[in-house]
Structures are given as structure tokens and as C-alpha cells.
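Batch job 17 of 40 flagged for manual review because the log was empty.
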Amino acid sequence: MLKIEYNYEKKASRIELLIRIPYMIILYFVRLLYRSFIIFFLIAQLFFIIVKGERNKTINRIIKLFLLYDMKATAYLFLITDERPRLFEKEKVKTIKKIERKNNNTKNKKNKTVKKKKK
């Protein structure tokens, strides 16, 4: 599951607004670079699904990383938040791995309780 949530922030920084304009120009080119790479992964995922009938976990993780980054940048662009997205994020890979492990652990616990109920 992919979940992004932003709460309403009443206070807004005027200085951040001035910084936002040049930062968004730089961020535009970074997002353009990311999008050119993500097209390769989308095509690879498409062929993987056609051939094997299932999604590749690694490619799926890369696409999720891009979506998370793109949503953060879009929220910043549309003045929803003053939190600047980093130009190149590294820690999101670890975060997505933790979320996937947590989801797998939850599924395993549910499967164990279902098996116990069947016995």
C-alpha cells in the first residue's frame, strides 16, 4: 500500500516562498531525469508481467520510490507544505524495505492465525 498524507499547515514562511522558486527550477530538471529513468523500469515491468504474469519486486520498489519522491515534489510545488524534497533521496529505499518487511510480517501473522483456526 502506498500512502501519502499531508496535514493543513496554517503558518507559511515567506522566505521559503522566495527559496521555492529557484529550487523548483532545479527540482524540475531532477524530476525530468528521474522520469527518463523510470520509463525504462516501467517498460521492463511491462515485459516482466507479459512474460511471467507477475510483477518484479525490485522494479516495483523502484517505481514506488519514484512515486513517493514525485508526490513530495508536487506537494511542495503546489504550496501544500514548506518541507523541501531533497534533490536525491537515499533513505527512502530503507523506508520502503521496512514497510515491506512490516507488511510481510503482518501477512505471516494473519496466515498463522488462519491456519490455527482451521485446525
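Reviewer: the log was empty due to a logging misconfiguration, but the result itself is present. The chain has a mean pLDDT of 78. Unflagging and moving on to job 18.
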